Amino acid sequence: MDTTDDKVLPLSVQSLYTDGSFHTATDSSPSSMASAWLALDDDGLILESSSLQIPSCFPSALRSEIYAIVLGLNALSHGSSISVYTDCSQLISLWKRFVDVPFSPKLLREHNHLLWLSIRQLIKDRKLIVNLIKVPAHGDDFYNVQVDSLAKASHLSSQPTVSPLAFCHVPCFLTFNSLPIDMNIRHFLRSIADACALLSFCSMARFTALGSPSLFDWAGIYFCLSQIKGFASHKNGRPEFWIFRIKLLLDMLPTLTTLQQRKPYLYSPDWLCPQCNSAPEDLNHLWTCPYILPELNPCSTHRSEVVKFRDSCLSSFLSLKPLDSNFHVAFSALDCWNYETPSSSYLWLTRGLLPAHLTNFLKQYFPLSVIYKTISTLLNDFQIELYGEIWLCRNILFHAWEESQGISAASKLRGPSSNPPFTAISSHIHNSSLASVSQDSWISWISSSIIRGGSWISHLDFLRRLTVQPLRISFW
Ligand SMILES: [Zn+2]
């Protein structure tokens, strides 16, 4: 596997100093894990040392510490009895839970369980006696300082030369795309199901017809949808509002255009918006219809609600941290607030399709979790207003108009009186300029989350693709 495997330390080794080092990812460089150990005899003489940059896989500081022990134990002779010195107290407390006890299948639910199982297997196979001892992290222990600098120095070495599967001393494990799954398997499989579901969602023709999937912030849209808990439980009251939100997102609200496609035998394809009679009544027309009644002025209501939404976003973000006037000016100038034209992204935002440029702008100032939490709450408030002030009012007028056309609730249920071929009408709407979404994108999202850490949802990427191999889930 590796040169470290060839080293076999003499039985005279009395103690091992181990240390891990972890560099978190920055904008310019990925995260990096490195581990080192020193082997000493009972005179305190350093017999051997080793350091290694660890292949990035579920990267964390703790993992680099556990790796240091795996590598150290891996170099010991059969029957060695040693003290392991570490400055990581978390490592010692986990050791007590996972190593100093009989095996329990519950271990398989834990992060880094493959490393812990490898330690158990090494101790068993080589009949090792291991005692962990805590040393002060920033004390003046000479050997600890030395092993610390050894670990830190190996970040500078070239890319890891060992496979993420090296040092895996376990009888059986699962891999994904040749990467070991060193986390709760049930959670991992859940993340695959979620990633596939999101991929199917954003590949829907109704969305790809609007443009490239990279125009939208799917992670943000996913977050907003996940907030619709009331939809599943119906405990929050208002299920009809949640249905409105979802139909709005999917462009499935029963506008006249939709009804003309679904029931052309009742709604003549020639009919225009019953209010203004100047344009087809599709989803976007709900907000741009120029017709003005005392109780309904959709265009101006929509504009003022968007302005309210924009200003609430601004004041929420400004309350989180002081920002100069440049933020204010640049935020207000974003294309998604452009109601004059109106811009496409303005109409998308109304539907709940968060435009990517909105998040990308805010990301310069705030963490994504803060952005999503703030926007999803305010978007919900905004859509409540659209529901009450525009959609419900429009429905009252629309039903009155339907009655005037002789379209009753009973006739809607009846279906066509004859069977003319209606099928051709609805199929042509979404077939132009389909942006392609690669249907194996989920593999690169998941692989990327294993390699770089974090949830798969933070690795959505429709433009830059990882080079991925076909999926392999294997046992051995
Ligand atoms: Zn109209």
UniProtKB/TrEMBL annotation:
Domain RNase H type-1: where? 10-156
Which GO MF terms does the UniProt record name?
nucleic acid binding; RNA-DNA hybrid ribonuclease activity
Gene3D superfamilies registered for this protein in UniProt? Ribonuclease H-like superfamily/Ribonuclease H
Return the PROSITE patterns for the record. RNASE_H_1
Q: Which InterPro entries match?
A: RNase_H-like_dom_plant, RNaseH-like_sf, RNaseH_domain, RNaseH_sf
Give the protein's recorded name. RNase H type-1 domain-containing protein
Q: What organism does the record attribute this protein to?
A: Rhizophagus irregularis (strain DAOM 197198w)
